[in-house]
Amino acid sequence: MRPRIQAVDDALIEQILSEARRILAEIGMEVRGPEMRRRLLEAGLPTAEDGRVLFPADVIDRALASAPRSFTLYNRDGAPQAEIGGDNVHFVPASSGLKILDHRTNETRLATTADFAEYARLADGLPHIAYLATAFSTNDDIEAQVSDAWRLYLCLTNSRKPVVSGAFTEHGVGRMVEMMSLFRHDRADLIARPMSIFTITATGMFRYSEDSCQNMLDCVEAGIPVEIVPVTLMGLIAPVSLVGAAVFHTVDTLAGIIMAQIVRPGAPVLFGGAPAEFHMRAATSPMLGIQALRLDVAYAAVGKALGLPTQAYMALSDSKFLDAQAGAETFGSALLAALAGINSVSGPGMLDYVLTFSLPKLVYDDDLCGQALHFVRHIAPLDDVPTIDLAREVMAEQHLITAAHTMSHWPTELHMPSPVTDRENRENWAKAGGRDLLQRATDEVERRLAAYEAPETDPLVVAEMQRIITAGMSAPAPLPDVPPVGTGLKAAPTNAPRRQRRFTR
Q1: What one-character-per-residue DSSP string does 24-49 give?
Q2: What is the pLDDT of residues 262-303, one digit of tens each?
Q3: Long-range contacts made by residues 472-478, C-beta under 8 angstroms, separation at least 24?
Q4: Cis before residue 348, ω within 30 degrees of 0?
Q5: How far is it between the farthest Cα atoms of the chain?
Q6: What's the CA gap between 266 and 250, in Å, rounded?
């Protein structure tokens, strides 16, 4: 069996779905994207007197019937990387922050291209980070309208892993699709072997903005899987109670799934979210408040009951630093996500209400995520039933350290954390320098960055991606410099020659 958590029972899930269906049919959604609205009306969806689009029961049923139960995410080279569905759990860095907590100066500041390149190189080698995300914005000399493509470029040239991304403008998806297509034979191959998941945000109040509508259209038509991520604020624009909030959340998510299936039946869609609770005293929106976490596992249960892949913002922290609060919030929510079988968990590396990214926290979170994944492995007898022989052996030897059973199974049964997690006794810890968590995590960041080896990329592909980005600028301008491998202190021009083999698609 697999360890799991059951947040809501089947009867309550059916009640939540019934209430959500009624809201979709009687109140509907405000669809602000003109092209998406036109597609929905052409598909025969009715409207309310105030113009809101209504979703009748038969439309909902057809959409749910056509939505895939799982899909495979492939890496840059076209090899399968992650199966999104069932109870498979994959951890991915959160997005999209604005600042970096500089591990060299302990300063919180606006992030740069050099910071992002270091992040991508670090995440590329972390064993429990299944794929990357365009985790935070760069604030150096790059136009905002192409900044999303620039971050994707940095991911694609510094890692082979897939990436969770998204467009920040109404027409940003197209150039990002062009860039990813360079790593496939053609557009059909990109659809067959997707290398990215794009985030579509529902803003609450049963509304989809112009940007969200257009981005969904562009993604679905290009074959990019999308995660529908409502920002459900409990106590502010959604009920403070769990069941009521779950209904509101389900309405927003289902609406996105239905729209995607109307545009292209069979489009891969994740039942996701980024809920938070409204703090009645501080007037903040903690994503790691315990009521928000209850909503995470509750809506995930609803998505699973519908047979859909799921996503959540968990395994992160609202704390400002890598401290006790950050560790508790990250591990607690990572374990809940793993127990709930959430397929794509966005969170590692993030602090401060999804505003600040930290590289030391990312390496520590990788360790915590590894422990959570170890915990939810299937439990079954492992050469230990009948147990009588092991009992006789321990009585005879007074230990099982060198027993054949121990020697055979301890490498897989006993999880060995990275050096970031302290498992030494006090004497050995002191002899090794008495480093605290932040020091150990910072040292691990620098060790991994020093050992990083860049994936080989065809210079022609690099040049074409740069051309696509600059073509989207309102005025010609040089792209920001990217630091060479091995240092974050000096930057080489993006057009600097590289010694590498030709990349074969």
Answers
A1: HHHT-BEE--HHHHHHHHHTT--B-T
A2: 999 999 999 999 999 999 999 999 999 999 999 999 999 999
A3: 472/143, 472/145, 472/146, 472/149, 472/172, 472/175, 473/143, 473/145, 473/146, 474/143, 474/145, 477/141, 477/143, 478/141
A4: no
A5: 82
A6: 20
Which residue spans within 367-476 are E strands per DSSP?
A: none
- Arithmetic mean of pLDDT over the chain: 94
Bridge-based pairing of strands 90-92 and 344-346 is parallel
| Domains annotated on the chain, with CATH | 65-375 (3.20.20.480)
- Is the pLDDT confidence value at 118 over 60? yes
Q: Are 354 and 21 in contact (CB under 8 A)?
A: no
CB 35 within 8 A of CB 214: yes
Q: How far apart are CA 89 and CA 344, in angstroms?
A: 6
Alpha helices (H) along 67-182: 113-124, 147-158, 173-181
Query: Is 320 exposed, middle or buried, given 0-12, 13-18 or 19+ CB atoms closer than 10 A?
Result: middle
Cβ neighbours, 10 Å, residue 262: 22
pTM: 0.94
- How big, in percent rounded to 5, are the helix, strand and coil portions of the chain? 45, 15, 45
- 182-186 contacts at long range (C-beta below 8 A, 24 or more positions apart): 182/461, 182/464, 182/465, 182/505, 183/76, 183/77, 183/78, 183/156, 183/461, 183/503, 183/505, 184/78, 184/505, 185/505
Q: Sheet holding 90-92: strands in order across?
A: 90-92, 344-346, 311-313
- How far apart, in Å, do the first and last CA atoms of the chain sit? 41
Q: What is the pLDDT of residue 487?
A: 60
**pLDDT score at 499:** 31
Q: Encode pLDDT of 412-439 as tens digits.
A: 999 999 999 999 999 999 999 999 999 9
| 261 contacts 269 by C-beta, under 8 angstroms | yes
Peptide bond into 96 cis (omega under 30): yes
Of 253, 157, 156, the residue nearest 196 (C-alpha): 156
**CA dist 126 to 17, 135, 190, 349, Å?**
38, 15, 25, 12
Q: Do 395 and 18 meet the contact criterion of CB atoms below 8 Å apart?
A: no
With cut-offs at 50, 70 and 90, classify the pLDDT of residue 168: confident
Q: Length of the chain in residues, anyone?
A: 505
Let me know: does 53 contact 28? Beta carbons within 8 Å.
Answer: yes
Facing residues of 197 across strands?
164
